[in-house]
């Protein structure tokens, strides 16, 4: 399962956002540093309006959406890379995530204490980024010693690793994240094995107050974050964590009206979840039957047998072919039978690359 770590300085709205994401109140949102000590974990459905439509069509007994696991990680302070505050725990937890959601405070409120004494989102971003970079630099220096010894002995893998470290280390020494390095596909595959914190795909959640939500482009803090992210190969989602937390207490049919009243079209939480999904190069294929309608998460570019393996390893092992119909086609004609009669279904083999919204029925023999 995809795992996203929610990080940020103390008192920027991390736990409030976590509550909104999980629609629960089990993360302690308090006005002092380190309110979150042990990381809270919540499994969150990926918003997908197609599932209910499909369920109504096939009269399914249940709906099973794709999911993301969000981890609310302890607030970080300067010196975390050297163990200050809860730094060691913070870094260990974030190392286990697939992507980072950094909550950045973009609102003024004299009643909520900022650990640095003032609101400055770029300073906050750079504080966390520097701690991740310093931790990575220490890791790279350790790897370099081992890679140099291997390269001198003629080891090809050691030489390849040393070449990549030569690209990464100067960037880190400049205080820039490893994700800003331009890697080849082969290099990127090897870098994943380094588990560098600053190489993780990053989303900046610009946390604004309700008054700024509908006109966030006029918020100078948001503009600063967007400009920074554009140069850092990162994404920005503008969100009001407190409003999203309130949304979680409403019935689904009331949420759209509430959002309309505050001048926005969609939930920031929904946009954040979809952004994390997209940033990691993930997509969904669907299965639909009377028992359940389900979305399955796969990387973009996955072939049909490997997609089948997400359902069960036996289906991948005994894969024969996949019967595929597009979501829009099935909805338009109403039934699989009608889709077959109109030539809208296809039988695809082992080399077929799954597409977003494919509805699949796998044939196999074990």
What does the model show?
- The protein is built from 15 helices and twelve strands.
- The chain is α/β, with parallel strands linked by helices and 366 residues long.
- A six-stranded mixed β-sheet has the order 2-4-1-5-6-7, sandwiched between helices. The protein has a three-stranded mixed β-sheet with strand order 3-9-8, sandwiched between helices. The protein has a three-stranded antiparallel β-sheet with strand order 11-10-12.
- Helix 1 (14-22) runs parallel beside helix 9 (241-247).
- The longest helix has 32 residues, at 121-152.
- The model is unreliable at 24-37 and 83-87 (pLDDT under 50).
Please provide a brief summary of the model.
Helix content is 42%, strand content 20%. The chain has helices at 14-22, 50-58, 87-95, 121-152, 156-173, 185-191, 210-213, 220-230, 241-247, 252-261, 268-279, 304-311, 313-317, 327-333, 336-341, and strands at 2-7, 40-45, 62-64, 67-72, 99-105, 202-207, 235-239, 282-288, 292-299, 319-326, 346-348, 358-364. The protein is flat, with a radius of gyration of 23 Å.
């Amino acid at each position: 399962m995809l795992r996203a770590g929610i990080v940020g300085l103390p008192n920027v709205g991390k736990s409030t956002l976590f509550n909104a994401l999980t629609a629960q109140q089990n993360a302690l949102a308090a006005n002092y540093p380190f309110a979150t000590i042990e990381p809270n974990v919540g499994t969150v459905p990926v918003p997908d309006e197609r599932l209910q439509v499909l369920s109504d069509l096939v009269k399914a007994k249940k709906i099973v959406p794709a999911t993301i696991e969000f981890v609310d990680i302890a607030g970080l302070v300067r010196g975390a890379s050297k163990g200050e505050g809860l730094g060691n725990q913070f870094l260990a937890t974030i190392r286990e995530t697939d992507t980072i959601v950094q909550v950045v405070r973009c609102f003024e409120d004299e009643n909520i204490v900022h650990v640095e004494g003032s609101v400055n989102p770029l300073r906050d971003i750079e504080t966390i980024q520097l701690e991740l970079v310093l931790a990575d630099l220490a890791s790279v220096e350790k790897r370099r010693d081992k890679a140099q010894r291997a390269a001198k002995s003629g080891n090809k893998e050691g030489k390849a690793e040393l070449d990549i470290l030569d690209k990464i280390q100067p960037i880190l020494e400049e205080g820039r994240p490893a994700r800003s390095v331009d890697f080849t596909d082969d290099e990127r595959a090897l870098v994943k094995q380094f588990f560098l914190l600053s190489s993780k795909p990053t989303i900046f959640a610009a946390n604004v107050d309700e008054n700024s939500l509908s006109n966030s482009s006029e918020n100078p803090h948001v503009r600063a974050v967007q400009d920074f992210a554009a140069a850092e190969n990162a994404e920005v989602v503008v969100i009001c964590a407190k409003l999203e937390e309130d949304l979680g207490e409403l019935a689904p049919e009331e949420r759209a009206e509430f959002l309309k009243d505050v001048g926005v079209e969609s939930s920031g939480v929904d946009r954040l979840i979809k952004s994390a999904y997209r940033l990691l190069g993930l997509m969904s294929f669907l299965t639909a039957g009377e028992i359940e309608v389900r979305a399955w998460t796969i990387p973009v570019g996955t072939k049909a047998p490997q997609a089948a393996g997400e359902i069960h390893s036996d289906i991948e092992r005994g894969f024969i072919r996949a019967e595929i119909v597009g979501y829009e086609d099935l909805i338009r004609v109403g039934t699989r039978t009608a889709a077959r009669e109109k030539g809208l279904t296809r039988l695809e083999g082992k080399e077929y690359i799954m597409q977003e919204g494919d509805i699949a029925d796998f044939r196999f023999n074990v």
